[in-house]
Design the sequence.
């Protein structure tokens, strides 16, 4: 296991990148702490697979260095990095049995038979496939195959990191949950450094200790699920995480107050913000009112999703979502909304501005 | 399940039955007809029973032709299948050169068989052919019209030249269907080049390779035009394969009875081998499901 350091890393698929836009992965410095579980979250094409492939050595970055425990491995081939990777589509060696599949990486490294047998047995019990060891791998279900590819990584006990590239995409929904729980448990039990690429926020938030959110080739925020929820550092994080995402209002920021349209909103803290200024409020922090103070709004519809209700509103022609409790009745005469002060974040040019007391 | 019985439905099958009857069954039956009769001309036929079959089964001529035929098919399969796989493995994976290779390799497949025969007939001639003349000039005693081994080598090389592309193209299609993740996973598992071929590429190609082998076997087992144009079955009977022998018998000597018996047995052998192939392929498929 190792600490993985990305030093000044950037990558462009073009041979001679001219502007920053030519980079699929923009300059990045980050340490992946040893033994932690990270999720790399972002929409398709945001550079997360590029980053993963650079770490695994399938891609050589156009600038910067990758260090494993301080050792430069930027140009080292995949085999020398001692990492394991689970791909989007399960990769198993069809003609081999499950046992042979699990033993394959060890056999290629010339390990002695007794040790191989011991480790295969151990991994088989980890991934819960002891009863199917002597079956051919080809007829197994997608989730069983994905477990085998995971097992092939875990069987090398000294792997530096386990990388997952959207591993649950082809798995049935009910198996997804089970596999994710199993992954989480494996991480707790064995403490491998894990990096998990996904575009599914539920997967990212339930799996990882720290979530790395990427947007347009850039890491926009690294934080715990709670931080991402409460203090999104970038409007993209606010929009991408949460269901529905954060509401954004164009606002003029003036010290402790923000002006949204004709209404003043108390921010509780003092801010200085320049450029395109906005305030972001998660649907959970929007209160519905009839009459009185607040921003004028009109209810368009109410969606009952079971655990709670999503109220879709119209504020000066723009859609806004609010969340109300499952038991709440939504009066028809709601015509204003207001914000819970602790739920308001201020953004300047899409980046969050820290307030002062 | 209650099925409605409606005998009129048979009329729907009728057009197909008529078509197949005229295109296959009736012509085949005339051959069956010839195979059990004898004639001394004048369009007078006599019942001969199974005697032509017995004659044929005890005829060295047929057994020799069958032996040569099997040897020919075995040799060309043993060359073309590995060579085709090797070529496919070394073809560019994409871009201009991939298309270039595909088109170039398809060319031999598009040449009419007669022309292939003619090309090699001239190519191998000692007096004017590039190959024959060159070999002769550097001191190799090569003459496919007189030497049995030379004739065989020529016919086999011609077939390899003509048909390896087919195996290569099928194998290439099989290879291209393997997702990149397999190669990446193999890298991570530190698999050797041989292991990648043995455990990833070969299993993924198995399906198309079975088809390639079946096609090449069938075609080579029925080969006629090319060796006939090049060697005419000679020297002696050295390259007289089943089809060539059959034509000699039926049209050269006009031995209709024996030739008919011969063709029926020829047909049965091909059916039998194809059935074996089919069974093997389907059991392999079924085993995949377990």
Sequence:
């Amino acid at each position: 296991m190792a600490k993985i350091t990305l030093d000044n890393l950037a990558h462009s698929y073009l041979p001679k990148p001219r502007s920053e836009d030519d980079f699929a992965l923009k300059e990045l410095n980050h340490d992946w702490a040893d033994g932690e579980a990270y999720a790399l979250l972002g929409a398709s094409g945001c550079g997360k697979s590029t980053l993963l492939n650079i770490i695994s050595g399938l891609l050589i970055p156009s600038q910067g260095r990758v260090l494993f425990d301080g050792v430069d491995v930027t140009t080292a081939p995949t085999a020398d990095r001692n990492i394991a990777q689970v791909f989007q589509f399960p990769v198993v060696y069809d003609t081999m049995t499950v046992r042979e599949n699990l033993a394959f990486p060890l056999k290629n490294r010339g390990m002695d038979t007794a040790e191989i047998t011991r480790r295969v047995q151990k991994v088989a019990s980890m991934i819960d496939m002891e009863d199917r060891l002597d079956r051919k791998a080809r007829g197994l279900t997608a989730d069983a195959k994905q477990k085998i590819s995971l097992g092939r990584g875990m069987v090398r006990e000294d792997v530096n990191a386990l990388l997952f590239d959207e591993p649950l995409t082809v798995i049935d929904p009910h198996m997804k949950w089970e596999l994710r729980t199993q992954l989480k448990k494996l991480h707790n039990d064995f403490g491998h450094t894990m990096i998990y690429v996904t575009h599914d926020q539920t997967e990212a938030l339930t799996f990882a200790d720290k979530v790395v959110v990427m947007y347009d080739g850039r890491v926009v925020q690294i934080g715990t699920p709670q931080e991402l929820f409460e203090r999104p550092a970038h409007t993209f994080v606010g929009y991408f995480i949460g269901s529905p995402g954060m509401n954004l209002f164009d606002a003029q920021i003036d010290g402790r107050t923000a002006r949204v349209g004709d209404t003043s909103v108390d921010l509780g803290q003092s801010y200085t913000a320049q450029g395109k200024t906005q305030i972001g409020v998660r649907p959970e922090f929007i209160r519905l009112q009839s009459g009185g103070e607040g921003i004028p709004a009109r209810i368009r519809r109410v969606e009952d999703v079971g655990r709670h209700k999503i109220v879709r509103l119209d504020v000066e022609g723009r859609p806004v979502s609010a969340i109300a409790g499952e038991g709440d009745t939504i009066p028809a005469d709601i015509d204003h909304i207001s914000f819970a002060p602790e739920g308001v974040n201020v953004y300047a040019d899409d980046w969050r501005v820290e307030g002062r007391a | 399940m209650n099925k409605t019985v409606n005998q009129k439905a048979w009329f729907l099958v009728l057009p197909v039955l008529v078509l197949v009857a005229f295109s296959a069954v009736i012509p085949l039956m005339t051959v069956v007809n010839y195979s059990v009769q004898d004639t001394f001309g004048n369009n007078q036929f006599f019942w001969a029973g199974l005697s032509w079959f017995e004659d044929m089964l005890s005829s060295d001529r047929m057994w020799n032709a069958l032996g040569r035929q099997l040897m020919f098919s075995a040799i060309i399969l043993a060359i073309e299948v590995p060579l085709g796989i090797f070529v496919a493995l070394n073809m560019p994976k994409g871009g201009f050169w991939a298309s270039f290779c595909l088109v170039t390799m398809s060319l031999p497949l598009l040449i009419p068989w007669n022309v292939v025969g003619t090309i090699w007939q001239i190519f191998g001639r000692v007096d004017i052919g590039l190959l024959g003349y060159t070999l002769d000039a550097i001191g190799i005693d090569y003459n496919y019209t007189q030497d049995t081994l030379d004739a065989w080598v020529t016919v086999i090389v011609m077939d390899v030249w003509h048909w390896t592309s087919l195996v290569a193209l099928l194998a290439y299609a099989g290879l291209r269907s393997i997702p990149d993740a397999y190669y990446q996973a193999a890298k991570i598992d530190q698999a050797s080049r041989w292991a990648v071929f043995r455990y990833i590429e070969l299993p993924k190609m198995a399906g198309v390779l079975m088809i390639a082998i079946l096609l090449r076997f069938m075609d080579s087992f029925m080969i006629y035009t090319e060796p006939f144009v090049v060697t005419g079955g000679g020297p002696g009977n050295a390259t007289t394969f089943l089809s060539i022998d059959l034509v000699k018998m039926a049209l050269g000597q006009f031995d209709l009875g024996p030739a008919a018996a011969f063709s029926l047995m020829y047909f049965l052998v091909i059916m039998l081998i194809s059935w074996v192939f089919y069974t093997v392929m389907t059991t392999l498929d079924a085993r995949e499901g377990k």
